[in-house]
């Protein structure tokens, strides 16, 4: 049987609404910390966790609630303006713009603006060269997220399939959950691809179909 190229374009934007965030032991502490705002002990909080753990989703939930301005640390940082809060996403990717991040944090703290930062690791591992910036970042309590556990990975897949009105056998979901990267992006990509593949073949999503897609991703025979 001749294989054909499977499409992987992803036209659907992810939803970062609160109702789409699935709580589990891997993220419960961080969710509680975010939802405790505005009753934080200080003006800063740092969410730390691996890619796909839900940092950006939690950040978006907080930004909506706090009416925060969102800035991406890897891009040019901007002044806080008249915003009551600021979300700095991927703060550990600040690169050469340490002065910009230092200025932004100082401006926010001086104005009484709340700050939420997300990062993959704690600031001491960012290889920063500005001692004053390190000191400022150490003021922020760190709340950690962990990689999604098996239960959460399956729950995410079930929800994504249900969003597309696809009834998929639990054994197929379990098979996929054990074999994909533990991230929302990977889960969304596999569900998107299997949805279109099932439509193209006029068949329900099966374990065999999922295996073909996964092998196409990894290049395995």
Question: What can you see in these coordinates?
Answer:
The protein is α/β, with parallel strands linked by helices and 221 residues long. It folds into two domains: 18-144, P-loop containing nucleotide triphosphate hydrolases (Rossmann fold), CATH 3.40.50.300; 150-218, Helicase, Ruva Protein, domain 3. It is built from eight helices and five strands. It has a five-stranded parallel beta sheet, sandwiched between helices. Helix 5 packs across helix 6 and helix 5 crosses helix 7. Residues 1-12 have low confidence and may be disordered.
Structural class: alpha/beta
Terminal CA distance reads 13 Å
CATH superfamily of the largest domain: P-loop containing nucleotide triphosphate hydrolases
* Second CATH tier, the architecture of the largest domain: 3-Layer(aba) Sandwich
CATH topology of the largest domain: Rossmann fold
Count, helices? 8
- Tally of discrete structural domains: 2
N to C succession of SSEs: HEHEEHEHEHHHH
Shape: elongated
Helical content class: 40-55%
By DSSP, the count of extended strands is 5
% residues in beta strands: 5-15%
Unreliable runs: 1-12
CATH class of the largest domain: Alpha Beta
What's the arrangement of strands in the largest beta sheet? 2-3-4-1-5
Largest sheet: 5 strands, parallel
Whole-angstrom Rg: 20 Å
Whole-number average pLDDT? Answer: 86
């Amino acid at each position: 049987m001749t294989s054909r190229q499977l499409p992987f374009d992803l036209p659907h934007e992810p939803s970062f609404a609160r109702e789409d965030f699935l709580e589990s032991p891997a993220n419960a502490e961080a969710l509680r910390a975010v939802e405790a705002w505005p009753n934080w002990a200080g003006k800063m909080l740092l969410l730390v966790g691996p890619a796909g753990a839900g940092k950006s989703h939690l950040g978006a939930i907080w930004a909506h609630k706090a009416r925060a301005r969102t800035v991406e640390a890897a891009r040019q940082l901007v002044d806080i303006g008249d915003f009551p809060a600021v979300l700095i996403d991927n703060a550990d990717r600040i690169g050469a713009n340490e002065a910009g991040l230092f200025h932004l944090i100082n401006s926010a703290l001086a104005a009484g603006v709340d700050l939420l930062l997300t990062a993959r690791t704690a600031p001491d591992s960012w290889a920063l060269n500005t001692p004053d910036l390190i000191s400022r970042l150490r003021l922020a309590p760190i709340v950690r997220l962990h990689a999604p556990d098996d239960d959460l990975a399956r729950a995410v897949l079930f929800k994504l399939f249900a969003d597309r009105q696809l009834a998929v056998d639990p054994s197929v979901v379990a098979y996929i959950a054990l074999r994909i990267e533990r991230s929302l992006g990977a889960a969304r990509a596999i569900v998107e691809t299997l949805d279109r593949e099932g439509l193209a073949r006029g068949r329900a999503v099966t374990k065999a179909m999922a295996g073909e897609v996964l092998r196409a991703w990894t290049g395995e025979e």
